[in-house]
Amino acid sequence: MPFRGDPRACARWPAGTRLSGAVLAAAFLLAAAAPPAHARTGERQADLPAAVDAAVAEYRAATGLPGAAVAVTHGTEAVHLAGYGSTPSGAAVTERTPMAVASVSKSFTALAVLQLVDEGRVDLDAPVRDHLPEFEMADPRAADITVRQLLDQTSGMSDTTFGAFSRPQPASLREAVAGMRSAGLAAAPGERWEYHNPNFQVAARLVEVVSGASFSDYLDAHVFDPLGMADSSTNDTDQDLPPSAYGHVTLLGRPVAAPEPPAFGNGSGGVVSSARDMAAWLIAQHGGGRGADGTRILSADAVRESHTPSPGADSYGLGWQVGATPSGAALVHHGGDLFTSTAYQALLPESGHGVAVMANTGMAAGDASAIAEAVIAVIEGRETPPPGQSPLVVGADAVLLGLAVAAVPLAGLGVRRSVRWGARRVDAPSHGTVLRLLPLAVPVVLFAGIHRVVGFLYRGRDVAWIQVAYLYPAFLLLLGLAALGCTAVAVARAAALVRARRAAAR
Fold first, then answer.
1. pLDDT attached to residue 44
2. Cα separation of 59 and 80, whole Å?
3. Among 222, 346, 499, 186, which residue's Cα sits nearest to residue 214?
4. Which has the higher per-residue pLDDT, 425 or 41?
C-alpha cells in the first residue's frame, strides 16, 4: 500500500505498446538470418546469473540498499536464485531468507479462491454472501458483490468509505470482516475499479469458511507444501513477521532499521517467502498451474483467467496486473509495498521468464520494482539508465532536518519573549489576543491530522497517522518540533498575559 498493495507498484510500465507492421517485418528478416532461437536462448541463460548479479550490485552500490533477494526462472527451471546484503539484524540475505512480499500476497489469495472454484465449492460469479453469510455492510448494494469482484477489485469497496488502516486493527480475518458491517460502498458493485486491501481480506475469510481451515493452514496444505515452499507462510499482522522480514526507512538517503507499523494484512499482504520459494511459485504460474515436478495446484484455465484483465477493471485480473515491458513484450505482474520493505513479481509469457524481487527498504524507495526493471532489461537485452538516488530527495531531507533543528532555539526565544508579549497586551481586547495566538495552533492541528492530508493527496487512500512517519520522517519530525514549540510559546504567552493582567489589577 503507496500503502500495502499500492497500485503504483502494480503498474510500472505502459500497457498496450505494440510493434508496427514494418518493425515486425524487419524483425522477421533479422530472425531468418540469425542463429536458431534455442541457441541464442541457451547463451543468454548461461550469461544471465552473472548479468543479474552485476545489475543488483550496481544498484546497491548506487542506492545503499541494505538487502535484497532475487529469483529468475525460465520455463520449469530456476535459473538464478540469490540473496544480497543483509537483514536489519546483520544476518546475510540468502536465497532461503524469508522476506515480506506485501501485496504480492493478493496473487496467493486469488489462487486459493480459484482452487475452490475448480473444485466446484465456490461460484466465482455468485454473491459473496452465498459462501460467506457473515459478510455484511451498511450499504444494501453489498449483497450484490460477487467473489470475482473481490479479486478484480471492482466490488465498490473503497478506502474513502472504510478506513482499513486508520481504524482499530483487527486480530483475525473474522474480525476484519466483522469490522466492515458499518461501512458503505463508494460505487455500485462492478461499476469501477478501485484498489482496496479489504477485498482480499474478505476473500481470504471466504477460503477459511468454505474450506473449514484457517487461511494459514489452507495455504500450507494447498499451495506451499505441494510446491515445496518450505520458507513461506502467511501472517495476520505485521508484528507476526519473522525478524528477517523487517526492513528500513530511508532518511538522508541512508537506510534506518525500523519495525513495521501496526497493521492487519492477512489475505491482502501477509505472505512471507524466499527467493527459492518464489521461484517455485513463478514456475507454477508459467506452467499453467503445475509445479516444476508436475504437481498441479490449479487448472490451466483458472491460471489463464487470473492473468486476464476483467471487464471494467482496467488492466487488473484476479490478483495480477497485465501490461507490457518497454520493449512491448507482454507482462503479467504485481507489486507489494510495506513501509519498511517492498516486493515485485513478474511473468514474461513470450520468453517464459519469471522474476521475483524482495527488498528490505520501504515504499518510499521503491527498490524491489526498480531492481525488477533492471533484471527484466537484462533478460530482454536492453540498456537501462544507471541507478542512483535523487539528490533532490536527499537535499529535501537535509533542509527539513535543518529546519527541525532550528525550530528548537526559535521556540526557546519565543518563550523567553513571552513576558514582554504579555505586558504589551494587558489592555488589548480578548478577541484580538486570541487571534494573535491562533496561528500558533496551525502546526499543532496539522501535526494531529497529517494522515488525513496525506490520504487526500494520495487520492483518498486511507493512512494511519504512524504511517506518515515512515513515509516522510524528516517532514514529520519538523512538524512535530514546530507543533511542540508553538504549544510552548502559546502556553508561555497566555501565562504571561494572565500574570500581567493580575499585576495591573493590583
1. 55
2. 17
3. 222
4. 425
* Helical spans, DSSP H, in 381-472: 391-416, 418-424, 430-437, 442-457, 465-471
What Cα–Cα distance (Å) separates residue 143 from each residue in 3, 150, 160?
A: 27, 13, 19
337 contacts 28 by C-beta, under 8 angstroms: no
**Under 8 Å between Cβ of 116 and 210:** yes
**What does R_g of the chain's alpha carbons equal in angstroms?**
26
- Given pLDDT bands bounded at 50, 70 and 90, which one contains residue 6? very low
Cβ neighbours for 224, distance < 8 A, ≥ 6 positions apart? 230, 232, 233, 277
DSSP state for residue 154 in the 8-state scheme: -
- CB 464 within 8 Å of CB 263: yes
Question: What percentage of residues in the chain have a pLDDT greater than 70?
Answer: 91
Show the domains of the chain with their CATH numbers: 7-99+210-380 (3.40.710.10), 391-505 (no CATH)
SS3 346: strand
Q: CB burial class (10 A; 0-12, 13-18, 19+) of residue 210?
A: middle
Short-list 295, 266, 138, 158, CA closest to 207: 266
Mean of pLDDT over the chain:
89
From the list 215, 195, 199, 106, the residue with the least C-alpha distance to 146 is 199
**DSSP assignment letter at 220:** I
Q: What are phi and psi of 258, to 5 degrees?
A: -155, 145
Q: Which residue, chain included where needed, has cell 537484462?
A: 378
Query: Is the confidence at residue 470, as pLDDT, over 70?
Result: yes
Q: What pLDDT score was predicted for residue 4?
A: 38
How far, in Å, CA of 230 to CA of 213, rounded?
19
Contact indicator for 371, 68 with CB cutoff of 8 Å = yes
The C-alpha cell 471466504 sits at 206
Residue whose C-alpha is closest to residue 196's, from 106, 134, 302: 106
Q: Which among 189, 71, 178, 84 has a CA at the least distance from the CA of 134?
A: 178
Cell numbers placing 6: 499500492
